Amino acid sequence: MASQVIKYGLHASPAIRQAVAEKGNKLFEQVVVGDRGGLARAITLAESRSAKWRSVGQHVVSRALEHNKGRRTFRIGLSGPPGAGKSTFIESFGRMLTQSSETHRLAVLSIDPSSSVTGGSILGDKTRMPHLSVNPRAYIRPSPSSCTLGGVARSTCDSVVLCEAAGFDTVLIETVGVGQSETAVADMVDLFVLIVPPAGGDVLQGLKRGIVELADMVIVNKADGDLLAPARRTKMEYLSALKLIRNRTPLWNPPVLSVSSLEHKNIDDVWTSMQDYQDIMETSGRLHQKRSQQSKTWMWQMITDQIVQRFQNSAKVAKMIPEVETQVRSGDLTAGQGAEILLDACNLSTLVCDTA
């Protein structure tokens, strides 16, 4: 006798829905009072690929979204090439922010690259933030990218909502940072910051479509010691390059700032410029419009992720994969034909794969 399939989400039974709501409500109450363990568990459930635990996580996120309405928060994305000093900058920036005012609390969502071979991640960014990691007014959450393209994790947008519900007014997302493709974070933050090292490339590199033209601010890091002169040259190069790129909004000209994270120089100037951007965008109403569009973008991204996951979890498809792969490798089927055969095993009219 086949075992009964338990459904979660919108198709769950009343009993399952009640159990999910009870677990989710209990966890939500822990999040809103600032319980770090509760916040960590909520983020873990939101990241889960298990339908059971993901449904609990989504219940918490839903309540957190309602809880956050009317609250003033600031979402900042930080990306850049390896060696630009992103983690060191966050350490210096976070210490400045939490010391400048008793009202500021900072959450850092650090995305760590996952191995394409083993799927594992080191999650070692906290080791480069020794002071911030023990700061009671800061929270650092490393998460694996799980080989997701765009430099962010699949559920990063949910993690942002949960951090805001936990009382963190500023949320900073550090991407994997491996090149021009790390642009997905721009679709989930208010301010997208590109951080570059001195002498990090010529002007033509800055003119490439991709990460530079999406930046609302460019920071040249490591402007100290022997690198001070190269940092000045790099700053001038990016200033020249940005003049040839259309601004994302006519209300804001992306500034190029040079800082020394190691010596904590000009970090406060960065925060001042960030606040100017936030004030302009809020006053004009652009910030609300931007977040609304981002929610739509990530809804469609999650639809894509769910379709792929349900396809991969189909028992019927799993039985067919070895034979189809063999025929594709031998040349009896084209890659497109093999894909069509496997996709036909799913009931795409309802977007639910046959798991029987």
Strand order of the largest sheet: 3-2-4-1-5-6-7
Shape: globular
Give me the number of helical elements.
12
Amino- and carboxy-terminal Cα gap: 12 Å
The helicity comes to: 40-55%
SSE arrangement, N to C: HHHEHEEHEEHHEHEHHHHEE
Radius of gyration: 23 Å
Q: How many runs of DSSP E, i.e. beta strands?
A: 9
Low-confidence stretches: 1-5, 114-122, 146-152
Mean pLDDT comes to 83
Q: Provide the structure class.
A: alpha/beta
Q: Main beta sheet: strand number and arrangement?
A: 7 strands, parallel
Oligomer: single chain
Strand coverage percent: 5-15%
SSE topology:
Layout (H helix, E strand, L loop, with lengths): L13 H19 L3 H12 L3 H18 L5 E6 L6 H15 L5 E7 L25 E7 L11 H10 L4 E5 L16 E6 L6 H5 L3 H4 L2 E4 L7 H15 L13 E3 L8 H18 L1 H27 L2 H16 L4 H10 L1 E2 L4 E2 L3
Helix pairs in contact: 1-2, 1-3, 2-3, 2-5, 3-5, 11-12
Report on this structure.
The protein is an alpha/beta fold and 356 residues long. Helices cover 47% and strands 12% of the residues. It contains 12 helices and 9 strands. It has helices at 14-32, 36-47, 51-68, 86-100, 156-165, 203-207, 211-214, 228-242, 267-284, 286-312, 315-330, 335-344; strands at 74-79, 106-112, 138-144, 170-174, 191-196, 217-220, 256-258, 346-347, 352-353. The chain has a 7-stranded parallel sheet with strand order 3-2-4-1-5-6-7, with helices on both faces. Strands 8-9 form a two-stranded antiparallel ribbon. Helix 1 (14-32) crosses helix 2 (36-47), helix 3 (51-68) crosses helix 5 and helix 11 packs antiparallel against helix 12. Mean pLDDT is 83; it is low at 1-5, 114-122 and 146-152.
